[in-house]
UniProtKB/TrEMBL annotation, chain B:
It comes from the Bacteria. Residues 1-25 form the signal peptide. This is Solute-binding protein. It holds the Pfam family SBP_bac_1. The keyword Signal applies. SUPFAM superfamilies: Periplasmic binding protein-like II (SSF53850). Transmembrane segments: none annotated. The keyword ATP-binding does not apply.
């Protein structure tokens, strides 16, 4: 998001100054850098150090070398949690992206009713994840929930008790909560596409579908990358909603890495092992983020507006 | 380019958000500072305050608060400052505070494995000699309550509050409608399961998502089939204790009951925190429910006239045919526990001990617990039941607690937090039928003694 904005908004002189690497701009990064060091680098180093110890949060922190790493890496729970995390990430991306693009394109229209709908769509984003999870849990209760209330047998499923259903519920609720945010990104992205392109396409006789695939979608490339990065890195660390909704259950069907980490650290009192998972999460997040940058193309500075 | 670096930094920040929160949480919840630390130099103990953290929420919070207020009034020179913490947050918060050396003077808890981890870390006072000197304090309480307070032969906590055995509750109206009698044996239970299913009523309610609810079933099946020594061997850290034939049999029977549709459909989606499991019983959607004795108060409060109209029945878990366990045995919470922080000042410890002697479970507190439907762990507290509208239930609980040959502590409380988490995890899988009894035993054997 920040990237496409800066690329589009940068004046030639600012770009020139940046290229020279001088001027006042580096100073502007100092506050961000300080808080980044204080709240991200320092705790990260702490987490890394703790991963080589065993600590039950009560007694002394004992150095234990690679014991915690060995325990976690040989635990069959780890590949399972990785797999579930991957599934959650992939499925929520696959559900959210098309839906967000379509809604975003729709909301980019300037009609009055669309503006109103845009406000309504935005509501889920304003609610806290824990509140959403509690509300859905109540609605999905097999005996006293929505199905029982409306006497609809179709809704009377063991929603959180069957592994596949519980997983689908998690994806549904996550999407319900975050599609509005990503639609907003796409709405902004679509509105930045110059009108002239559409006018030219209309003159060439392109229909709506053709226009969407030939102009709107390619022009949204960087918005898609931004939104996907946020989605993927975000779902990697997804915790609160899953923890309240299923607590990783049934069994361990929805136990993503973040939930696994919490359970090991704060419920089983194995801080060393929890920190190992924390480190794995960081590495995964970094790797994925870098990978997505690569997918963005070799030359991110290239204009999106060629021919406009 | 700068923009690239900036966004990479954003990714870093995003990907590190979680471990960061974890690390921050460890220092964030230190709680109120100990007021006792700042005072003291002046008045020779005058004005010293002990601190006391406990669980919030009805009905316990009001009773606990009132007991401390009475104590403070009677002892105006010193006193106890209270902090009530919500149930789920409490375990984490108290642990963090103790680990950070910020523990309150009086630590409220469940005894057992949690207490043992405090003892191992040297964080709580050994009260053995104090109890020897103040035998009257000890002798008025249920002897069974001291088991979970005793680690390695030494007493580290003062038992308090109420005894809470697990009880088999049933809905008398549903039994009447279907025309059946309460079970006398586990065989009867299996018959009832068929009859209730045929009548379209769920035989047992179960809040399976909460996991410890499932555990209560295993606790009774293990005891009734193999006797209390089967789990005792696990608790004592004997190698491969879960492989005991009685253990495998109990686990197998458990899965058979699940396969026979013994529990309400979708039980894995039902949570105990929302009391949905108890609602199933009092609304007549389920016929029976195995639950802690505290459920009585909840059903009374939420079930309309269900309890007052005589709809609720209760009994101890019946024997399993051919089982070795004593049918009088029970399991649950033999009491709640108060420990003294070893980091407290001598004045603070003195106040805490005075509170244990004169404040804890005074007559008024006993009466208030009885009003909530609880049985105080004081010998002869049944003398106060007369006149209570819940006298029948209270006498039953008093009898179960008093007559139990073995009053075992709930497994998840008895084991260390590490082993308890593995236990609950495997219980959930066992109830999902995703692991076999032998796999359960193998997984659990791996954490014995941890």
């Amino acid at each position: 998001m920040s990237m496409s904005a800066t690329t589009a908004g940068r004046t030639p002189s600012a770009a020139a100054r940046e290229a020279r690497g001088g001027g006042v701009l580096p100073w502007l990064a100092v506050p961000a850098l300080l808080s980044f060091v204080a709240f991200a680098v320092v705790p990260l180093i702490g987490v890394l150090l703790l991963s080589f110890t065993s600590w039950d949060t009560l007694g002394d922190i004992r150095l234990s070398g690679l014991d915690s790493w060995w325990d976690v890496l040989t635990d069959p729970g780890l590949p399972h949690a990785l797999w579930v995390t991957f599934l959650v990430t992939a499925a929520s991306w696959a559900v959210q992206t098309p839906a967000s693009i379509l809604i975003g394109v729709f909301l980019a229209g300037r009609q009055r009713y669309r503006e109103l709908l845009a406000v309504l769509y935005f509501i889920p984003l304003l609610l806290s994840s824990a509140a959403i999870a509690i509300a859905f849990k109540a609605l999905l209760d097999p005996n006293f929930g929505l199905g029982a209330g409306l006497h609809l047998d179709l809704l009377n499923q063991d929603w959180l008790g069957e592994p596949v259903l519980a997983f689908s519920v998690v994806i549904f609720v996550v999407s319900w909560q975050f599609i509005p945010f990503h639609s907003l990104l796409y709405q902004g992205g679509v509105r930045q596409i110059p009108r002239s392109m559409y006018e030219a396409a209309a003159l060439d006789g392109a229909g709506r579908v053709r226009t969407f695939f030939s102009i709107t979608l390619p022009q949204l490339k960087y918005t898609i990358i931004t939104s996907s990065t946020l989605m993927i890195v975000g779902s990697l660390t997804f915790f609160d909603l899953i923890f309240v909704l299923t607590a990783g259950g049934p069994g361990d069907a929805t136990r993503v890495l973040a939930v696994d980490m919490y359970k090991r650290g704060f419920q089983a009192n194995l801080m060393g092992a929890a920190c190992v998972i924390g480190v794995i999460l960081v590495l995964l997040g970094l790797a994925l983020a870098l990978l997505l940058r690569r997918l963005g193309g070799r030359d991110p500075g290239a204009s999106q507006l060629e021919g406009a | 380019m700068d923009s690239r670096a900036t966004s990479r930094r954003t990714f870093l920040g995003l990907s590190m958000g979680l471990p960061l929160t974890a690390a921050m949480a460890a220092c964030g919840t230190s709680g109120p500072a100990r007021p006792g630390g700042g005072t003291g130099a002046g008045g020779g103990g005058g004005g010293a305050k002990a601190t006391y953290w406990f669980l919030s929420g009805p009905p316990g919070e009001a009773v606990r608060t009132a007991a401390v207020e009475r104590f403070n009034k009677a002892d105006p020179n010193s006193g106890i400052e209270l902090t009530a913490v919500q149930n789920d947050a409490y375990k984490t918060k108290i642990k963090t505070a103790i680990g950070a050396g910020q523990a309150p003077t009086i630590i409220w808890g469940w005894g057992g494995g949690g207490l043992r981890s405090y003892v191992r870390a040297g964080q709580v006072e050994d009260l053995t000699s104090w109890f020897d000197q103040n035998a009257a304090v000890k002798d008025r309480l249920f002897p069974g309550a001291f088991g979970a307070a005793t680690i390695g032969g030494k007493i580290y906590a003062m038992p308090c509050e109420t005894v809470q055995p697990i009880v088999l509750f049933y809905n008398k109206k549903v039994f009447e409608k279907v025309g059946v009698q309460p079970p006398q044996s586990y065989g009867d239970i299996l018959d009832l399961v068929k009859k209730f299913n045929a009548a379209g009523v769920a035989p047992f309610s179960l809040g399976g998502q909460s996991r410890w609810t499932n555990m209560m079933w295993l606790e009774f099946l293990f005891d009734r089939i193999g006797g209390s020594e089967v789990f005792q061997a696990v608790f004592d850290g004997e190698k491969d204790a879960w492989n005991h034939p009685a253990s495998i049999e109990a686990l197998t029977r458990m899965q058979e009951l699940i396969q026979a549709d013994g529990f309400v459909k979708g039980f894995s989606s039902v949570t105990a925190d929302s009391n949905a499991d108890q609602a199933l019983l009092y609304t007549g959607k389920a016929a029976m429910m195995l639950h802690g004795s505290w459920s009585y108060g909840i059903q009374q409060a939420q079930g309309g006239d269900f309890v007052s109209g005589g709809g609720l029945g209760w009994m101890n878990f019946p024997p399993v045919d051919g089982g070795k366990g004593d049918p009088s045995d029970t399991v649950g919470n033999p009491g709640q526990y108060l420990s003294i922080s070893s980091k407290a000042t001598p004045e603070e410890k003195e106040i805490a001990k005075r509170f244990f002697t004169t404040g804890v479970l005074d007559d008024q507190e006993q009466k208030e617990w009885i009003d909530t439907g609880g049985v105080p762990i004081v010998k002869g507290s049944d003398g106060l039941f007369a006149g209570s509208e819940d006298a029948e239930f209270l006498n039953f609980i008093y009898g179960v607690a008093g007559n139990a040959k073995v009053f075992a502590q709930s497994w998840d409380q008895a084991l260390s937090p590490t082993a308890a988490e593995v236990l609950l995890d495997n219980i959930a899988k066992l109830f999902q039928l995703s692991i076999s009894p032998q796999q359960f035993a193998t997984n659990m054997n791996a954490v014995i003694g941890q």
